[in-house]
Amino acid sequence: MDSNSHLESHQGGCHCGRIRYKFEAPKSVTAFKCNCSMCSKRGNISFSVPKHNFSLLSGESYITTYSFGTHTAKHTFCNVCGITSFNISRSNPHAVSINVNCVDPGTLTHVEILSFDGRNWERTHYLRTKMKEAQLRGDKDNSSNESSDQGYEVGSDVSNSLPQSH
């Protein structure tokens, strides 16, 4: 998420509607499709917002949390319909990851999807961190050399395939 972008109010929730939340984010976001053992099985595509930009509106008693491995990630889901509409990711535990497919239609206008190599999480996280450090230093040559090996690649614009009301 670009911190310089204008923030808009968005809402989302699970399939049965018991869990509802609101968050502040730009209208255009970059989401990640991860291939780790958890995300690949649930088909999760998510983007992160700072925790202070997220508010649970309803359904706290319906949230179940599953964690494994380092227990840093908190995989939350509705204990009625089973949908993971948001979670706390291992790569950014100080933010809330929003499942792009659970955002109410009409407020997100563009979603860029990048693939993230979560099966090789440590290596991918290390390369992404090094690339961000190089970008902050203004070392464009170093960041472009690593870009083909950074653990993610550009996907497609899915702004026309965002979830619609049924």
Short description:
The chain is α+β, with helices and mostly antiparallel strands and 166 residues long. The protein is 18% helix and 35% strand. It has a domain at 8-119: Metal Binding Protein, Guanine Nucleotide Exchange Factor, Chain A.
Could you explain how this protein is built, in words?
With 166 residues, this protein is of the alpha+beta class. The chain has a domain at 8-119: Metal Binding Protein, Guanine Nucleotide Exchange Factor, Chain A, CATH 2.170.150. The chain contains 3 helices and 11 strands, in the order E-E-E-H-E-E-E-E-E-E-E-H-H-E. The protein has helices at 37-42, 121-137, 140-146, and strands spanning 8-13, 20-25, 28-34, 45-50, 54-58, 63-66, 75-78, 86-87, 95-99, 110-116, 152-157. The strands form 3 sheets. Strands 8-9-4-3-10-11 form a 6-stranded mixed sheet, with no helix packed on it. Strands 1-2-5 form a 3-stranded antiparallel sheet, with no helix packed on it. A hairpin with a 7-residue loop joins strand 8 (86-87) and strand 9 (95-99). Helix 2 (121-137) packs antiparallel against helix 3. The longest helix is centred in the last third of the chain and has 17 residues, at 121-137.
Write the layout of secondary structure elements.
Elements: E1 8-13, E2 20-25, E3 28-34, H1 37-42, E4 45-50, E5 54-58, E6 63-66, E7 75-78, E8 86-87, E9 95-99, E10 110-116, H2 121-137, H3 140-146, E11 152-157
Parallel strand pairs: 3-10
Antiparallel strand pairs: 1-2, 2-5, 3-4, 4-9, 6-7, 8-9, 10-11
Which terms would index this structure?
166 residues, alpha+beta, Metal Binding Protein, Guanine Nucleotide Exchange Factor, Chain A, six-stranded mixed β-sheet, three-stranded antiparallel β-sheet, 3 helices, 18% helix
